[in-house]
Amino acid sequence: MSPRTKQANEKLKQKRREQIILTALENFAKRGYHRTSISDIAKTAGISKGLMYNYFDSKEDLLIAVIEYVVPQAVEKIFSGITKKAKTLTPKELMSFVTDRFFEVMQEEAGLWKLSMSLSMQVADMPKIHQVIVQMYDMVHRKIEELLKRNNVPDAAIKARLIAAQLDGIALHYFVLGKNYNLEAVKQAFISEIVS
Amino acid sequence: MSPRTKQANEKLKQKRREQIILTALENFAKRGYHRTSISDIAKTAGISKGLMYNYFDSKEDLLIAVIEYVVPQAVEKIFSGITKKAKTLTPKELMSFVTDRFFEVMQEEAGLWKLSMSLSMQVADMPKIHQVIVQMYDMVHRKIEELLKRNNVPDAAIKARLIAAQLDGIALHYFVLGKNYNLEAVKQAFISEIVS
Amino acid sequence: MSPRTKQANEKLKQKRREQIILTALENFAKRGYHRTSISDIAKTAGISKGLMYNYFDSKEDLLIAVIEYVVPQAVEKIFSGITKKAKTLTPKELMSFVTDRFFEVMQEEAGLWKLSMSLSMQVADMPKIHQVIVQMYDMVHRKIEELLKRNNVPDAAIKARLIAAQLDGIALHYFVLGKNYNLEAVKQAFISEIVS
Amino acid sequence: MSPRTKQANEKLKQKRREQIILTALENFAKRGYHRTSISDIAKTAGISKGLMYNYFDSKEDLLIAVIEYVVPQAVEKIFSGITKKAKTLTPKELMSFVTDRFFEVMQEEAGLWKLSMSLSMQVADMPKIHQVIVQMYDMVHRKIEELLKRNNVPDAAIKARLIAAQLDGIALHYFVLGKNYNLEAVKQAFISEIVS
DNA sequence: AATGAATGAGGCTTCATTCAT
DNA sequence: TATGAATGAAGCCTCATTCAT
């Protein structure tokens, strides 16, 4: 009687949701949130504008969904495998490993990174998004802090903030300056400083 | 009509231009570029929308003018007085002095800072603005590099990039996290690391 | 498949139809026709949007069905029992009885009442609905006229129109002014005038 | 220097405002508020949609403006000249005179009348408009009450409500039934009742 | 030089209706 | 019979830009 099984339907919906989110990220990353229209996204996703609103209540909601969907994945990408490696690597090696992962993911997910950075600066009047972004930064701070504690670094909390700032700063400059930025050299310098 | 009048006019025009630019910065900083309308700016500046277009061909042109006018001033603010101090301070003291200035200016000019950071991330299709911003970052890199060279720091070029990144990263986090960010502690930690 | 099943089905369909109609009335009454969506109604009725279109060809058709189904019931409510009472009550008592019923039903069915009044004013391009509403008013006029004739009131036809107008006018004002309208006092005044 | 004098400009703006208001009334009256789009109004008024929003902040604001602009004029039309006549006519003649005016204006301003009646029933979620309409009904009630007091009618307040209800009810029925409603006869009956 | 009325394209969103399943 | 994903037209509104005055 019922059309499609509920489960199959739910799965399809989930797929569609992801498709929209990824298309949105792609668009937002390319032109920024405000310069991207719902129309753009729908067109890129090959669906009608109206359908968007079956999945997300508003453009802002879509943005939140994008961030909430993609950011944890990126963070996970960076820090994943750490627990396994934790047993075989020295703390310093771990730190170096994570840093490497950071730079890899930053380049792979440049769109996401740029988007969240530009959003970070202009969410004063978008409280929901502000909150999501704050949580994201907090999470990263905490993860780095944990790593430092394993290394018995004193003042791990503040030190974590310094390191996170440096990484984000490098990302910022890399995105702005592009090929003119010697990312590899900066990365090596960063690692050798950290590990020293 | 007379040459005098022409000159006076020219001066007046220049003044007005500056006034518009500063008003625009104020508005852009407060609500972001896209959420600020030409109407808003004209109203705040106390002139008509029409007149705005006698001074700037488009909204984007105005944005460029803002960046071009204001960014060098901020950079100058940070590094000004350095040449004078250079004679009386040790290199390390100089470094510490500049860092202090950086944090002061960052807080004083938070609006400008946020604006240029958010623009930095989404200038793919705004080449003129991209160029201005690139120059700004380059200038800062060079200034820090000079300072480091005075301190006989090896690899001054790369080191300058690391420091600049860290400063901008701290600014980024500070703007996002606001009161929840312990700027003072981070700043002290940064300085003591630099000077060590 | 068997005739029995067909009959049962038919009955079920009828039940469902009524259920949709009543749900629709409830919704239309609460938020007005235009501010109520088919989605709203389907959700409230616990069925799918698609199924709605098995029962009604369009939203306007549903509206017509609502009016056609519900209005006669309300009229009936007011005048029901009259023939029985006619034998035991004096004409004046009857009149008073009906008036009481009118005010009762008006309050019980406020939603329906408001809906049909607001529709009454803007049916220029909805001829079907216009017709239903016209019939309703005619029916009421005739019923009142009959009552008056029993009372040997001269010019019963015109008088009926005056009374009907007064009742509807009171309803109108009551709906608009709500608690600020002293319905009880007005009602008493109306009855004492009628009966005098 | 300035284009047009400010006064001339103000006058033009006022004219335009009125033009929009009257066009809007015409449209709202014909098809109701919800079935009339801003587009419709702009088209009828021969202006762009955007211009509407130079004069009114929203569609709802426009509706309020329509009512506030037009209702007092209609009320005035009905009750105007009363103070002059008050000296030469007996109270009953006055009452009859006002009633006549009511029916004239109701027919002349049928659009406005229908609009405000239909709105009356569906403003539950438009508080601003509800308020305006309540005020309108209050005003009429007070005016009638005053008239009755001159006639030394007891219970003038309640009586005024009854009369107002009757008049509005007649209007309601007249609008619904159109040519099938014997307005002239009803009117005569109403007047003779009132005056008796 | 200066105004601000006017335009029109485009943005976000809603919703009646259809149709594959 | 029943679902609800999907469409697309239409609605309200904003705003950069132009232009008559």
What is this structure, in a nutshell?
The structure is a homotetramer of 196-residue chains. With 196 residues, chain A is an all-alpha fold.
List keywords for this structure.
homotetramer; mainly alpha; DNA-binding; 196 residues; 80% helix; Tetracycline Repressor, domain 2; globular
Low-pLDDT stretches of chain A are none
**Quaternary organisation of the protein chains:** homotetramer
Largest sheet of chain A: none
Distance between the termini of chain A: 68 Å
CATH superfamily of one domain in chain A: Tetracycline Repressor, domain 2
- Broad shape of chain A: globular
Helix content of chain A: over 70%
Find the CATH topology of one domain in chain A. Answer: Tetracycline Repressor, domain 2
Radius of gyration of CA atoms of chain A, rounded to a whole number? 19 Å
Count up the helices of chain A.
Answer: 10
Number of strands of chain A: 0
Structural class of chain A: mainly alpha
Mean of pLDDT of chain A: 89
- CATH architectural label of one domain in chain A: Orthogonal Bundle
Give your account of this protein's structure:
The structure is a homotetramer of 196-residue chains. By secondary structure, chain A is an all-alpha fold. Chain A has a domain at 58-194: Tetracycline Repressor, domain 2, CATH 1.10.357.10. Chain A has ten helices and no strands. Chain A has helices at residues 6-31, 38-45, 49-55, 59-79, 82-88, 91-108, 110-120, 127-150, 156-177, 183-195. In chain A, helix 1 crosses helix 2 (38-45), helix 4 (59-79) runs parallel beside helix 8 and helix 6 runs antiparallel to helix 10. Chain A is globular, with a radius of gyration of 19 Å. The mean pLDDT of chain A is 89. The A-B interface holds A 30-32, 34-35, 114-115, 117-122, 124-125, 133-134, 137-138, 155, 158-159, 161-162, 164-170, 172-173, 175-177, 180-182, 185-186, 189-190, 193 and B 30-35, 114-115, 117-122, 124-125, 130, 133-134, 137-138, 155, 158-159, 161-162, 164-170, 172-173, 175-177, 180-182, 185-186, 189-190, 193. Chain A binds a DNA duplex (21 and 21 nucleotides) through residues 1-4, 9, 12-13, 16, 37-39, 47-54, 58-59.
